[in-house]
Amino acid sequence: MMNLIPHALVIGGTGMLSGVCTALAAKKWNVSVIGRSKNKFKPLMEQHPEAIFPIQADYDSEKIFRLVQRAIDERGTLDLIISWTPNHKALERICKLNASSAHFQLLHIKGSKRYFHDTEIDLPENCAYQKIFLGYMGEAGETRWLSHEEISKGIFRQIGSTETASIIGQIEPYEARPQ
Ligand SMILES: NC(=O)c1ccc[n+]([C@@H]2O[C@H](COP(=O)([O-])OP(=O)(O)OC[C@H]3O[C@@H](n4cnc5c(N)ncnc54)[C@H](OP(=O)(O)O)[C@@H]3O)[C@@H](O)[C@H]2O)c1
């Protein structure tokens, strides 16, 4: 059954992905957010107490699976997962918890090094998968890393897209990246 209110999970959503969480909340999504520090949830909760649901736990712990299952039980299966975690085993298990969803999108955020040497993950068939690589910006002959706002906006644009990979900013030439 489809959720009346779409449900997103943002893994590592209290740092540079905060803007994606608030943009989803503003579009009337329910947004479950994983992070460890209670303080980092405060700005999100202040802006959208009705739509942000903290999952305050370590994604390297067993507890995370119980808490994500509880989020699914309470707010429905996940329509979208946005993941910024190096723990691919945990990500795979979280996706499997969502097996009863008819279809969901996983936006897998990766640093630029992953563009050249990546590892694949094992995903259920109901998952539409997109890698999003974080690059750098080149302006007037200078380069700089992406701002959090650019990262969040770039990710938000990919929600619902059928691309399998995308880049925010640029990755090549790799030697031109900021030091
Ligand atoms: N290419 C670019 O332009 C660009 C731009 C920005 C960043 N980056 C890359 O991103 C890195 C900085 O990112 P960051 O990782 O510090 O990002 P961040 O988004 O600021 O923080 C990581 C997020 O994950 C959570 N988190 C971390 N470990 C966790 C755990 N074990 N369990 C649960 N949640 C956890 C954090 O909250 P808690 O700490 O409260 O758990 C926070 O929400 C930089 O080193 C850089 O490589 C690249």
UniProtKB/TrEMBL annotation:
InterPro entries: NAD(P)-bd_dom_sf (IPR036291). It comes from the Bacteria. This is Short-chain dehydrogenase. The lineage of its organism: Bacteria, Bacillati, Bacillota, Bacilli, Bacillales.
